[in-house]
Design goal:
Mean pLDDT: 92
Strand content: 15-25%
Largest sheet: 7 strands, antiparallel
Helix content: 25-40%
Radius of gyration: 25 Å
Low-confidence stretches: 504-513, 519-523, 544-549
Distance between the termini: 55 Å
Strand order of the largest sheet: 4-3-2-1-7-6-5
Shape: globular
Number of strands: 14
């Protein structure tokens, strides 16, 4: 198929672009196979380049012969295009709708993108399982790297290499895989070098209504316990949801079969509820009524911050079990690809200072999200504006980034990266010129030959000149565990994502840039900032306002 066949009108002159709080721009609109481009001869105006894959929905309006297209994007911005001529407007709208909803992954822009920068470091090889295992191997000899899933037959959503207890052989892993949802047997997520405790993740056990048992599964997770120690199983579902899963062949670990493990149920909502929450939140943020009570009521009704609180609370619980209780933890929900990954990755942000660096956070995203099988292609197919019926869409990764931002805001000196880095990852998860977030798991990415045919986001991010944009000027390495507060007054709306397309966010960006300038060039102020850093570092060693789960 040729893209030219899908473009009915490739170019229209005298198109007017409207964006909130910005002057209107008149220019020429062009459609290519992957971009909507508006260029103008007006002074001091930048070209608009919008990926078709970033378009969530469009609306058409007509007044006489003038047509208007409202373009709503996955990164939450809204633009308006006034197009002279009804036929041209209809043709442009039809072409955009077609090009923004192509089903074939291989037709997406990452397969056609050619970088204008020199690739110094191939991002596809930057964060390998072998590298991650070397760090663990230097601390303990109790784990091994297994190739049991090298052909993806044991678990389609796991990578070819997984870290498991050295005492458990591959045949045992195969048997355990038949007892866990989608073959997602327990694998190592994190090793806490302070006390040797570990965090595992898995899919739900397939106990069913008959209370099915798997002794190999019991042996596997017991192999992670030290002599005389107990462990915690954190189930991200309520007990009622877990009970209902039994009727569908799922379930949870029975105390009689796992006597050394205490099971704790937490309430992280399922994907469809979270998607509805995002839609309500964005609707509230776009409310033009200028009524504060109405806006706050809509914000509360969206339950977005409630979901942030639930996820952070569960992650803090996992971190407390490991660091304070000196116990190992197994985390799972139903599939083990959504809420499970939110909890395991956030717990590592809390426990491991290495995950608070730019490269460390990139490694975390690669290891706990991409390699761990979070279905990005499905979850990020639509954002908050799509008119089509929801299927698998859910802001799982966005909620994780929001939680990270909440912690970063509470501990501004403990993160090497700034808010812009988190916003960048949000944008590229939904629409990108890079192949990093294409596909739903490692197997699909291998079949698509992404490392050979596309450029990795990390190849661009890890370039020194780009990394400068993401550096936090307040950063001072902190080797301690940080305990975020989940009290309601401590959790705020992430303006940098949800309100960034208005004037207020631009003022915040300008203030941030000014702050960076002052810190870098004013020696007197720098010394005061250093003193403040030391005080904040001392405060960060104290407990947060974490509510007892």
């Amino acid at each position: 198929m040729e893209f030219v066949e899908l473009i009915k009108t490739p170019r229209v002159d005298n198109v007017v672009l409207h964006r909130p709080f910005m002057p209107k721009v008149e220019g020429t609109l062009c459609l290519t196979g992957h971009h909507l481009i508006l260029s103008s001869r007006q002074d001091n105006t930048e070209e608009l380049w919008l990926l078709h894959s970033n378009i969530d929905s469009i609306e058409k309006r007509f007044v006489g012969s003038l047509g208007t297209i409202i373009v709503k994007c996955k990164d939450l911005r809204i633009i308006q295009l006034d197009i002279p001529g009804m036929e041209e407007c209809l043709n442009i709208a039809s072409s955009i709708e077609t090009l923004s909803t192509l089903d074939s992954v291989s037709l997406m822009y990452p397969f056609f993108y050619r970088p204008m920068f020199e690739v110094i470091e191939d991002g596809w090889n930057t964060f390998s399982p072998e590298q991650a295992f070397k760090q663990i191997e230097s601390l303990t000899e109790e784990w091994r790297l297994s190739t049991v899933n090298k052909d993806f037959t044991v678990c389609p959503s796991y990578p070819p290499l997984v870290t498991v207890p050295k005492s458990i052989d591959d045949e045992t892993l195969r048997k355990v895989a038949t007892f866990r949802h989608a073959g997602r047997f327990p694998v190592l997520s994190y090793y806490h070098k302070k006390n040797g405790m570990v965090m595992m993740r898995a899919g739900q056990p397939l106990t069913g209504t008959n209370g099915r048992r798997c002794k190999e599964d019991e042996k596997l997770i017991n192999a992670t316990l030290r002599a005389g120690k107990r462990g915690y199983i954190i189930d991200t579902r309520t007990i009622n949801v877990a009970q209902q899963a039994k009727a569908r062949g799922g379930g949870f670990e029975q105390e009689a079969h796992y006597p050394q493990w205490r099971r704790i149920h937490k309430a992280i909502e399922r994907s469809n509820i979270l998607q509805e929450s995002l839609i309500k939140l964005v609707e509230a943020c776009n409310d033009q009524s200028h009524n504060m009570d109405r806006w706050l009521s809509k914000l509360e009704a969206s339950n977005w911050l409630t979901h942030v609180k639930e996820i952070l609370t569960t992650a803090c619980l996992a971190a407390q079990c490991i660091d304070r209780e000196g116990a190992s933890v197994l985390v799972h929900g139903t599939e083990g690809t959504d809420s499970t990954l939110q909890v395991t990755s956030l717990a590592q942000i809390i426990l491991d200072p290495g995950c608070r660096t730019i490269r460390g956070f990139g490694s975390l995203v690669e290891r706990e999200w991409l390699q761990a099988g979070h279905p990005f292609q499905q979850r990020c197919a639509q954002s908050a504006y799509s008119n089509s019926k929801l299927r698998w869409e859910a802001p799982i990764f966005l909620l994780f980034l929001d939680c990270v931002w909440q912690i970063l805001r509470q501990f501004p000196c403990s993160f090497q990266f700034n808010e812009h880095f988190l916003v960048l990852l949000f944008e590229h998860a939904y629409a990108s010129q890079f192949g990093t977030f294409l596909g739903n798991n490692a197997h699909e990415r291998l079949k698509l030959k992404l490392p050979q045919k596309t450029v990795s986001l990390w190849s661009w991010v890890n370039r020194p000149q780009e990394m400068e944009h993401f550096l936090n000027p307040l950063y001072e390495a902190n080797s301690l565990v940080i305990w975020p507060s989940v009290a309601p007054q401590s959790l705020l709306l992430w303006e940098g994502v949800f309100l960034r397309w208005n004037r207020a966010s631009k003022c915040l960006d300008e203030a941030y840039e000014e702050m960076v300038h002052i810190i870098e060039y004013n020696k007197e102020l720098q010394s005061k900032v250093n003193a403040l850093r030391r005080q904040l570092a001392e405060l960060e060693t104290e407990d947060g306002l974490l509510e007892t789960p």
